[in-house]
Structure formats: C-alpha cells, structure tokens
Amino acid sequence: MRVLLLSFEYLPVKVGGLAEAVTSIAEGLAELGHEVIVFTPDHGKGLGEAVERFKVIAFGEEVEIKARKREENGVTIYSLAGGLLSESDVYGPSWEGLLKKAVLFGKASAGLMNSLIEEFNPDVVHAHDWHTVFSLGLLKKYFGVRSVFTVHRLNKGKIPGHYFHEANLGELAPYPDIDPEHTAAYIADMVTTVSRSYMLEEWSFFGIFEGKVTHVFNGIDCSFWNEELMETANLPREERRKLILERFGLKDGKAFMFIGRFDRAQKGVDTLLRAIEILSTDPAFGDMRFIIIGKGDPELEKWAKDVERRFPENVRVITELLPREMVRELYGSVDFVVIPSYFEPFGLVQLEAMCLGAIPIGSAVGGIKDTIIDFRTDPERGTGFLVPPRDAFALANTLVSAKNLEEETLRRLRENGKKRARKDFTWESACRRYTSVYTGSVDRAMSFLR
Ligand code: NHF
Fold first, then answer.
1. What whole-number distance in Å separates Cα of residue 259 and Cα of residue 337?
2. What's the pLDDT band for 341 if we cut at 50, 70, 90?
3. Whose CA is nearest to atom 10 of ligand 1?
4. Are residues 24 and 101 in the same domain?
5. Mean predicted confidence (pLDDT) in 291-310
6. pLDDT in tens, 57-81
7. Residue 349 placed within a domain
8. Euclidean distance between CA atoms 108 and 85, whole angstroms
C-alpha cells in the first residue's frame, strides 16, 4: 500500500514519545513492503534537499513554502519549511503560534500533495495527534483519501473555530470553540490509540466514535536497550549494581530507579517521594536505595532534593538529562524500575526496563497495565508488579514486598520480562495491525462485548 503519515515529531525532532513511535511505525511499514511517505514540519532543522517551492496564503499573508526531501531506512520524509513551520520550538512559539503553525502545516501539506499526487496517490493518510487535524482535513477534502487518526495522548483542549475557517475548513467548525481531537476522529475512517486500557479509560472520548475505534499497541526496539551493549556486560548483575550505586556515592542495597518528567499531572514522582517518606520509618528501608532521575516542576525538584538531604544513605536525585548509554547502564544494573504514572497511553520506561532485566513496578493504568503481568496474580508468567495509581501506601508496601523476593523469583521475573518485551511488543506486529486498520480488516472495540 501507499501510506502517507502526518506528524509534528519525526526523529531527529523529538519532544516526547511521539517521535520514537511515529518513526518506528514508518520504518516498520516500509519493512513490510509498503511505500511510506511522511509529511512533518521542518522546525528549522533544514534536513534534506529542497525539492518543491510554492506559496500559500495564511492569516492574510503569502508564505513561501519549501519542501525538503530525504530518505531514511526505506522511508521518504518531506519536511515543510517557511514561516512558522521553520520555528524551532516544535509546539510553539506560544499557544497561538502553535495553532497558526498547525494551520500552515495543513495548507502546506495540501499544496505538496497537489504536486505529488500523480506520482504518489496514497491509499491511506495516517495522522498522529491533534496538531495534524488541519492537514488531515484538507487532504480528505481535496483528495478524498481513506484516513486513520491515532491518539498518542489526549490533550482535551479547545481551539477557537476561526482557525478552521482560516484553514479553509469552516464546514468543520459550526461552534465557536472546537476540540481538534474530536474533529480529527470525526473525519477519520478509523481511530486508534496506543493501548487497550488507555482506550477503555478514555471511553468518554473514544466511545463517541464507537464502530471505528480500536487499539494498536506500540512496540519497543530492544536492539539499543540490550544488556550485551553495556560497559559492564560481562559482570554479574549484583556486581553491576554495586558499581552503579558506588558511582552515585551509595552503599550496596536493593536498587529502585525512577526516570521521567517531574510533574503533578502524569508521571507520579510525587507519589514515589511520599512512598519513600512513608518507608523511612520501616526497618526494611535500611537496605533500600533509590535513584531518582528527572526534572521539571521546581517545587517537585525541591521536594526530591529535600528527600535526598534527609535520607542521604538511601536516596540520590539527578536533575539533569543523562545520555541514553548511561540510562542503559542504570536499567541493566538496578533491581527495579518504578513507574508511578497517573495515566499512560502506552509508556516506554517499563518496556525499556524489561529489555534490560530491571523489574518494573508500575501503576495499573493504560499501557503500563497492558504490558506488565503482575507477579501476585500470575506468579509463573509475572514480569513485575502493578499498583493502584496515586496510592503511596500501596506503593510503599509493594516496594517492600519486591525487596523481599528471593533471588530465584527475581531471576524468573527478569527472564519473563525480557521475553515479553522482545516477543509480544514488536514494531513488526504493531505495523501488521496498522495494515489491517488501513484496510478495515481489524477487530473494533464494542462497548457491549465482554
Ligand atoms: O508511549 C507514543 C507515546 C506513548 O505513553 C506515551 C505518551 C505519548 O504519553 O505513543 O505517546
């Protein structure tokens, strides 16, 4: 099939998990033999060779659009430059700037398709997240292509309807304020999201589109997240742990790690800090070590640093971005990785950890719930632990139970996790399922089916 992907992020442009996901989908589809083209804003990167130039009228001005083309791993990427599309802040500048950028991306996508249509007439347009709504709308309006809209994370925002009028899509904006995710899902032939549990948790949104909704799990590429590539690959795991803890000035003990944004809305570092405070009076705390990596909300950084100051023998907080190779050393050396998110459409950390034999302890939400098999409910197949979100006491209890597991059980959990990450969550199976979504031969979510 000929597939056109639309996305605001495509590697090397990366803000969050979207870039990895869309790039892996594009390359995976190409590997299955599909012809894959990507349209993405240039974001000031200037990647590839300028192949097309044309002008569009947007917000009362003529903007000169330059389309740059490059080939990477079997995928053809067109990055669209000019006006706000060359702005380096991917989701900016400012909210209004982002909306204007999204409209300009829509018009530029339609203009580019107009030049390419004779040589590349897509069978399907696959749009990712709401920023591509104008692009999806215009491609559908002018070229009538079958379309798929994938939600990587709901934003639940509203935008003034006049942006749709400015995009020449006034017919999609009968109200003053429009939810662009709703509009994209409404016009698409199929709507997908990245895990089954996230779809069910957000059924108040996805249920509106029942009949054309399904999930496609993301994958994980364990080729980088691989123990054999570690500096300490030849050492037994306990030795690696000793070394890594020493590097952070800690004595040996059971090692737990958190990595992620410090925010109050999603990643749950506040619940972990609270759980550590609860644990600090428990005798088990003596041989527990916590490595907490991330940055963001200054108040949470302050709280984390305060916890480190109060428990210097147990806690280290790193508020700088670590190189991926260093993160790999950590995953391959610690015993457990804690993912206390409040929601997670799919989530990568638990699977990166599993690739490297760190046992995940995660909230029972979204993709975390779908990827971790709880040891307490399935001791044979278990890969980690699931805990209710926002419950610091439950988390503290689980951290202690995990710490007390016998070596033999830990070994089985690690092996199960490695197998599950490598076999059950490959990008190849994700791309096979997307192919079925494109042709319509895929199971749908049905609210009456149990
Ligand atoms: O993994 C890619 C990513 C997800 O859970 C993640 C998220 C954004 O929040 O699909 O998108």
1. 8
2. very high
3. 152
4. yes
5. 98
6. 999 999 999 999 999 999 999 999 9
7. yes
8. 9
d(CA 431, ligand 1 centre) in Å: 16
Q: State the closest ligand 1 atom to the C-alpha of 348, by its place in the atom list counted from 1.
A: 1
pLDDT tens, residue by residue, 345-354: 999 999 999 9
Give the model confidence (pLDDT) of 182-235 as tens digits.
999 999 999 999 999 999 999 999 999 999 999 999 999 999 999 999 999 999
- What pLDDT does 450 receive? 85
Q: Output the pTM of the full model.
A: 0.95
- Closest atom of ligand 1 to 18 CA is 2
Pair 110, 161 in one domain: yes
What's the token pair of residue 160? 């003034």
Q: Kindly write down the DSSP assignment for every residue of 335-370, as one continuous string.
A: SEEEE--S--SS-SHHHHHHHTTPEEEEESSHHHHH
252 and 369 within one domain: yes
- When divided into structural domains, the chain yields a total of 2
Residue nearest atom 3 in ligand 1 by C-alpha distance: 17
CA of 345 to the centre of ligand 1 (A): 5
Taking CB atoms and a 6 Å cutoff, what residues make up the pocket around ligand 1?
Answer: 16-18, 21, 152-153, 194, 218, 344-348, 367
Q: Ligand 1 atom closest to Cα of 20?
A: 2
Asked if residue 164 and residue 181 are part of one domain, the reply reads: yes
Residues 233 and 185 placed together within one structural domain of the fold: no
